[in-house]
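Example 3.2
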Amino acid sequence: MMISTRGRYALRVMLDLAENGQNGYVPMKEVAQRQELSLKYIERIMPALVKEGLVEGVHGKGGGYRLVKRPEEYTVGDILRISEGDLSPVSCLVSGAPPCNRAESCKTLPMWKKLYGMVNGFFDSITLKDLLDI
């Protein structure tokens, strides 16, 4: 499992909003400048974060995005699962994957399940606030 650019950027945007959004909506142009990210790429990430209820946006003058909850209420795991789709190390563990006909006899499946649990547990134990406090 490797975290893609999309997942890393989503985390950076969420952290920036947590750090700079106390006074309202933050324009993505400012986030892109501070984080040295492509504005076009950020604009492709934001709809999923809005759809899943992590942020809310307002268009027009004074518009931008803001977190809908406090930084300590967001886990890295939630953000990565929304931006990455899944954190599974193998395709047979991806949510909604067709059942594997080898699952009963697979000698490696328990190892993959354990890794999957460890990865999710690790990322679910870290909040945006934890990262801000580093």
